[in-house]
Design goal:
alpha/beta
């Protein structure tokens, strides 16, 4: 199983935990895994991307244009921004939430409309859901990352127990139960 996954979002949303959790999970399955460091404006509000690559042998964590099997996005505009990196038959798993970037906040630009439809029109398979509402149902809006991991798990042939064990091993103990709940809500 060779796979290239990009996790994209806005600083402060938990993309680093999501990429570490996913990397840890894939390692426990006996795969060679490379997880990149966070690239971008990792302070709150800036665009952030991390790469997770796995397979029998992975040389580099970098994913180039047209190589991503999955783009996991915390926000719609970020999903659209990184769309060129998706393979022809790739899938976007995205939060339907819109977070205004600085040009929109300052009035210099408008937030693009109909992004889900526009991404689908390129041929991308788009799985969009309101991850924020599910995270809040789990107990914290900060659990969007685990809701997204739950949704992503639909497309992996891995047992739920492996995901739960990875959550137990990667999440601080006082947040484990809430994060498991968020994962299960995302999984649906």
């Amino acid at each position: 199983m060779n796979m290239n996954i990009m996790i994209v979002g806005v600083g402060g949303q938990g993309s680093l935990l999501a990429s570490k959790l996913l990397g840890h999970l894939l390692l426990t399955q006996g795969l060679d895994v490379k997880v990149s460091e966070v690239h971008g404006m990792s302070q709150r509000g800036g665009s952030v991307v991390t790469y997770v690559k796995c397979g029998d042998k992975v040389a580099s964590p970098v994913i180039d244009i047209g190589e991503a099997d999955y783009i996991v996005s915390f926000e719609l505009l970020e999903a659209a921004r990184w769309l060129p990196y998706l393979k022809k038959d790739g899938r976007i798993v995205t939060n339907s939430q819109q977070i205004d970037p600085m040009p929109v906040i300052t009035g210099a630009a408008d937030y693009p409309e109909d992004l889900i439809e526009k991404m689908k029109a390129t041929g991308a398979q788009v799985d969009a859901m309101d991850c924020l509402a599910l995270a809040e149902e789990a107990g914290s809006q900060k659990a969007v990352n685990l809701v997204l991991m739950g949704r992503l798990s639909h497309y992996f042939d891995l047992p739920e127990e492996a995901w739960m064990k990875a959550i137990e091993e990667m999440v601080p103990p006082k947040f484990v139960e809430m994060n498991k709940k968020a994962f299960l809500l995302g999984k649906g």
